[in-house]
Every structure is written in structure tokens, then in C-alpha cells.
Batch of 3 targets.
Target 1
Amino acid sequence: MCAKAIPTTPAINSKDTASPGYTVAGQFVAAPKARPGLYLVATPIGNLGDITLRALETLAGADVIACEDTRITRRLTERYAITADLIPYHEHNAEAARPKILQRLAEGAAIALVSDAGTPLISDPGYKLVREACAAGHAVTALPGPSSVLAALSVAALPTDRFFFEGFLPAKQQARRNRLNELARIDATLVLFDSGSRVQDTLADLAAIMGRREAAICRELTKLHEEISRAPLAELAAGAATLETRGEFVLVIGPPRDADIMTSDDLDALLKEQLRTESVKDAVAYAVELSGRPRREVYARALALTKAGEADGQD
């Protein structure tokens, strides 16, 4: 069990820039030394103005800031004149860096953990550090703030009562399609991360498997060139060739609706018609797009119909 988190004391206005602090709107604000423990600090996902005052106070008052990329975090600390030391902590050095951070915590240090953008532990290795810090009895405190997952959900205009965060899909197409077939069965809004280099391929696969669902493409959230596109997946995929692929993407896919899912009888009728002139592969692809049913289910039904000889019109 984690030790009980100890809140920091309120910031004190001061003009003594020799003490730890931060600068907002040209005014220096002194920050008290943060109490020992690990602080999980949410940072902006694009617009640096989205940082919270509590986050600034904690970053300024920490002994060290552990971050994925010191170059990216330095943009934030320089913007607010924060002088705390930065150390790297990311998936490639975590095994070696984690014991050193835990040792500093044991010595009474205050360490802030940040990701490149947004809330720590979302698609980064921070949970292992938190788990071990908890096991060692150190105070662990969350400082909530920006999150691309929640930002995308809030603007997608899709149901938010239940959602499933998947993160990044597999890079290879077959593995990606296999995973999407599994996700298609989840009765909730889906949230995916994607890169500009793969987003067009991802949209094509999404359209093939869940093409009737409503969705939103959220690009460069909170940044100067933020774009939100809302439409059925099939329509978004059809326009993917002209999509601006620079930047970061969050894809939000609405949950399956009864109206989107073809009945079993209608699916059989569609497959029978398609199998008279098309291959099983092409018939399945067409039926998946129109039926709203998972590819695996449609494929199994197509094989069953073919085996029974019904594809030739024999009853």
C-alpha cells in the first residue's frame, strides 16, 4: 500500500529569485521545498499554458525532475524559469535508472515524474517506478492535469459513459487487424493513439472492421494546428489520402449500436449474394463493412455457408 501522500504548502509570493520558484506573467513566485516522495505531475500536451499552478510549484520545489526526454521537458522548465535538475527516465533506461531514483527517495528526496506530454503512466514505463515506490513505503502523490485521452473524448462528440483506452496498435497490419477484431467486441467507446506515418493504414483497417461506427480524428490537440474530424469510419478512411499526417493523433471510435449491427439472417443473405460472384476474402471484406460485425465472425459464417454449398444458390 502506498504511504499517505503529504500535500505541499501554499506558494509564497516573493521577489527573491535566489530561492526555488517559478515565473508566471513576468512575476516570480517562490516555491517551498517539496516534501520527500514521488510526485506524478501532469504536463501540457501541446499548449504550455495548460500547466497548473500546483504542478509549477511542485516542479520548482522538487530536488529532481525525472522525464522521458530532458530536451522536451526543458522547454517547459525554461518557459517558467524552473531550475530543478532534470534526469532521463524512459523505457530504454528504466531498468538502470529506477534503482537510482528509489535510492534517492530513500534518502529523503522529492522527485517529480513527468512524461513528454500529458499525465504520467499513460503509455510510458512509470507504473513500475510507482509500484516499487509504493512497496518501499514512499509517499506517492498525483497532480492531475492535461490528458490527451480525456481531451479527445471531450471533443469527439461520442458517448463517454464507458470508454476503453487501447493506446498504440501493433505496427504490422495482420497483428493490427487481429487486435481490432478483438476490440470490435467491446461495448464501449474506443480511444487509440497513432502516429502520422501509420494513421492512414489504421483508418483503412478500422473502416474494414468497424466501418459503420461514428468516429473522430483528433490531431495536434491544444496546439496551433489542432484539427478534429468527425464522421463514420468508412467516410474518414475514404478521405485519408488527403489527411495532414504531421503531428500527434488520437482516434476515438464510438461503441457499436444495435442499428449498426446487421442481423444474422441479413448477414447470411448478404454473404450468399456476394459468394456467388466473389471470393471468400472479398465477400467477407464487403460484409464486414456493411454488417458492423467482427471480421472473425463474418469469416466463420462465410466458410460455413461455402461448405454447406449454399453459396451456389442450392437450398
Target 2
Amino acid sequence: MSSPTILVLGSTGLMGREVVRGLNERGVTPRVLVRDPSRLRPTDQVDLRIGDLRDPASLREAMRGVDAVFHISPHEADEVELTRTVLDAVEHEGARLVFSGIHIDASNPLARWAMRTVYGRLMPRYRGKISIGHLVETSDTRPVVLGVGNFMQCDEVLLDVIRAGQFVLPTHPKGLNRVDLRDLGDIVANVLLDPTIPAGAYPVCGPRSLTGEECAATWSDALGVPVTYAGEDDEAIDAALTAHLTGYRLEDWKSSFKALRGFAIKTKKSEVDATTRLLGRPPTDFTEFVLRIVHERGLAPQPQSATGADGIPAPLDAALR
């Protein structure tokens, strides 16, 4: 049986590149639509199409003959209109849509509307993304909507800030659930390749909620340097984000970072169980993620008296084996 033809939109972003990796590891070469091929990783195996979501003709051409499409709302001022263009193209082709983004769920339509309204007022820059989740869920694309919260990879974007001694991601005192995008990439790949998974909304979460202090301590232990929590310092947050991001994405991150202080995002066993079923294994713990990044980037402290057989520090060596 031949593999379905898959189109991955946003393949050069943090999330999209993990979807490409997940598909490649399953022996699938996805089709991608990109403006700048140089942003693809050298290891990505893709069927390259040049184009833009603002060019419906190039999108329709890339969409021709596909069975399933992955889409995440872009950090753009016209993100709602761009998603409408994607939905129109998916519906025209008769393909299935797998979408990851903000999804607000409740027990009935009225409650969902009320929650969308409340969250829209609390996070005005995310009104578009909240609207997009609703548009996708109600579209004629047999959609699978993967609702996610905060990404562990936010830390990787700000890794030099962390190494300099500050952890600036704000969290509520009761904690924030965090997701490894590598897990999400594997889940998306599984769903794209399995048409028997029913349409609907599915939560994707990490195994536990963490406070900013806990995140800072984890990085400090792994790097062997003091890292302090600075998520209450707006100037530190703005400086860190401005040094690494630009444009609409910068303003989105500033807004969402500061809003995180007002939300306790608890970890529910039912959501961990649902994530585990989609993933085929337990979700990655934050400590595992941090040790992986430290190891991949060669950042671990190297005390001569405490190395394993491969020269990896013994605590890290044990965690990786």
C-alpha cells in the first residue's frame, strides 16, 4: 500500500520542521511550499514547491493530488485571511487537514463561545489565533485539531539568555504545562499517515506543569552555571525577545509571554493519556528535553573526574542511555 501524499505548510518554522523530521523518520518525503528554500535544513527530505500562502495559485498547485495537509497559523497580521485561503484550497482538493494551534474547548457551543470571548479579551493579540481554531474546527476538511500550549523550544530560541544566567519565560506560581515540539512532530506525522483517526480536537501536553523557578533550576543543573528566574521582570523579557525576534512574531511572543503569568496551566491525567495514545509513548519530560539540547549543542560541563565511557559527563551519560 502506497503512502499518502502529504503537504506540510510552515515547514521552515519551529513546529513545521519537526513535522518534516517525523515524516522522514517514517520513510515519507512530504511536499512543502516555501518562499525561501535556504531556510530548509540540509537533512530535510522534501518535495519542494516554491510559493506563498498569499498566492492562492501557488497554494492550489502545491495542493494538487494531496491526501492530507498540515497547517499552523503563521505569525502574520493577516493570519486569519491566510488560513481561510488554506481551508478553501483543502476543501477544493478534498484533502484532510491536520492543524495545530490554540483550541478552546468546553461542554457546549455556548460555553465555547463564552470562553473564546474571555480569552480574546485577556489576550487581544491572540484573537486571530482563537478565531482560526474555530474556523478550522468547523470547516469541511475532516480536521484533526491538536491543541497545544507552551513549547519547550521557546527556551532553545533564548538559549544564550539562559546561558548568561536568566530564565525569562513567565509562569503562574501553580505552573505551566510545556510540550516538546519533537513530540508534536511525531504526533502530527502519525495522524497525517493514519486516515482512520477520527476528526476532532485532541489535547497535546507534556507530562507535568513547571514553575519558572523549576525550569531555571533544571537549566542551571544541566549547564553547570547559575540560572535565575526573571519572568517577573518585563524589561528582561522585552530585551531577551527583542534580541531574537522581529516583526509580528516579536509582538505575539511579548504578549503571550506576559499573559502566561495570569494562567495556571495544570496537567490533567486524561490529557497526558490522550497524548500518550497519539504519540505511542509517554511525552517527553522537561528534564529530558534540556539534557538533549545541552548534549546536542555540546554545552555540558566537562569535569575530568566525572565522565562516562564516551566522554559525556556521568549524570548526562546516564540520562541519555
Target 3
Amino acid sequence: MKKGVQLLKKFSIPHEKKFSKEAVWTLTNHTVYQFANSLSIIFINLYLWRLTNSLFINGLFNLITLISAPIGTMIMGRFAKQKDRLVVYRYGILLTAIFYLCILFTQEKMVDYFYIFAILKGISTAFYWLGYFTLMFDVSNNQNRHRYLGWNLILTHIATLVGPVAAGTIISQSDALSGYPIVFMIAFSLFLIAAIGSFKMEKSEFHHKKYYMKYLPMMLRKRPSLIKTLLGWFIIGFPQGILIYIPSILLFDVIQDEGIIGSLNAIFLALSILSSYMITRFAKLEFTKMYLLIAGFGFTFASMFVVWELSIYTLILFMSIHAVFKPLQANSYAAHYYQWIEKLPLKQHFRVESIVIRETIINTGRALGVFIIMMLSQELNSVSLPWILCFVLMFQLIIPSLVDGPYFKKGVDFHAKDRRLGGS
């Protein structure tokens, strides 16, 4: 009996790590959004591939999306601060719904206007993530942030696990390309549900409406370690741009079956869910550097399989191992960055600006990855592509050296400057 009680205590959640009602609802609504997104995002690229059979057009679509995203983030950053991050969040969901509605109207003619669709996709994604990442900061704290980020990934991966399987089944059982519009219609409906759900969220309690982006250069001078932290986002984004669409196209070339691709993505995401759950139970902020080092070695190890031989088996091994270590890197670096926000002179009053900077930098890294693949699309083959993947993933080993922690020089009085900047 005593052992049972001790076991329950061991797995019980400490009070300081429990979530507020706002945090629970934010996670719930995000899960709906992610399920809708997962139904369609993989198959948008496959849809373009089936229509064009052009790696260049797929690359250009993703490149325009990734360039539009930071531009949209910078434009809406001031609006999010002066109005509310929840308004931008809602705009992101509604614009995403409109994106899929437009695909339903144009269908195969989407190819003629793919650049317009790419811009709309980039802007809608930018609006959503600017709002959501700010909400994540607001509804969590240093005590429960690793747990919140872990559950965020678990629910995201569950949604992204079910979505591709369901979409792949619908598409594979339909004639030609007729299954794609059905999937996009379901996604559109779910985005509308997420938009309605966003009205159950509360507006920000912070009253500082001034946009402080002009003080960024001064902060970077006073906090040199922050420059390295921001560089880390660029390095993290670099391989993500390539992995957005290349693996699914490689799998389709070998398998030629969307249903199997959806099932394989479910397996990869199941591994990420397990990894994310372990993070929610055991991860601690002080071990951030170690977690990032482990993730970097994991990515490098995964890339060795496709360098050795590019086949269906090595590609599955690569994606599986990558899926295990991706949540560890994502959670650890996000928690580290949120801690940085609270150590800046303006603290939580700079949170919107911090997300604008993060999204701009990580999307710039993603865009560079896509641009490189697009420029090399004519020369890429089963030998060169694995080495490119290996190089960009080995680059992740630099990230732990960029994490110094928010420790500042002693003897420097920032309080007067904090008050002048409007900090608390």
C-alpha cells in the first residue's frame, strides 16, 4: 500500500507545474488547428508534385512561402502589440481557411497561381505562429514551461499522426487527383472550428502597447549572448526548409502510394510523441545544453544512413531517428529562448517583439535551405542529396556552444535603462 502511494506521488504533478484553464484551452484549440494542418500540409507539396513533376516549382512554392512569412511577421508585430496577440492569432486561422477555400475553387489551376497561394500560405502561417508563440509565453512560466512545451508537442504530433493517415487513405482510395479536394474541404472546415474556438480565449492582461523593436540594437550590445541565441534559431531553421518537402517527395518516388506515405508519417510522429512525453516527465531547464548536444549527435547519426545508401529502408531509418531527437531540440531551445525573454530589460513587455525576431530568423534559415535545394535541383541525385542533408544536420552540433544561459555581467546597472524603456 505504501509503495503504491509512493508511486502515485512520484508521478503526480507538482502544483507549480500544473496548467491554468487558459493554458488547457490554448492547447486544445491548437490541436484542432494542427490536425487540420496535418491533413493537408504534406499533400499540398505532393499535389504540386503530381501536377508539375517539378522539384524547382515545389522549391519555389516553399521559398516564396518562407520569404512571405517573416515579412508578414514583421508587418503584424506592431499590430499584435498595439491591439492584441489574440487578434493576429485569429487572423492567422481565418487566412489559412481562406487559403484552402481558394484551392477548392481553383483545384488543378492552382499551378497557374502557385506564387499567390505561396504568399497567402506564408502570411497566414506567420500570423498564426506570431499569435500562438506569444500565447505560449503568456499561459506558461519557467516552472511549467518544459511540461507545457512537451504537451504541446504531444498533442501536435497526435494530430499530425492521425491527419496524414486519414488524408492518405482518402486520396489513395479516390480516382486520380479527386481525393485531394476532399481532404482540403475537411481541412477548411476544421480551420473554421479553430477560428470559432479562439473566441473562448482571453485577451492579454499586459497594458504596454508600445512597440519596442527599435531598442533591439541596444539590447544586442548589452546582451552579446543574445546574438548567439538568435543565431541558433537560424541554424535550427536551415535543415527544416529542406525537410519540409524533400523526404515526402523521395518517399513518393519510391512508393507511389499516398496511403503508405501517410502511414509512414504516422510512425515517425508516434516516435516523436513518445520522445515528447519523456520530455514532459523528466526535462529540466538547467540541462538545456546537454539536451541540444544529444539532439545534434542524433541528427548526425540519422544522416549517416542515407549517406551510406539512399533507399526506402535507409530513408525510413533516417526519418525515424530524426523524429526521436527533433522534439528534444525544439523544446529545449524554445524553453531557453523564453527564459531569455524574461531576463531582458523589458521582460514580458518585449515578448511580441521577441517572437517577431525569432520567426523572422528561423524562416530566413528555412528559406536558405529551400533556396539551396532549388538552385541545385538539376544536379541533385542519390549521391549529392544525402551529403547535403548530412552537412546541414551536422551543423546542428554548433547550437550547444551558442547556449551560455542568461548570465549577465556583474556591476552593470540596467535598472535605469529598464525604466526608460518602459520595463517593470
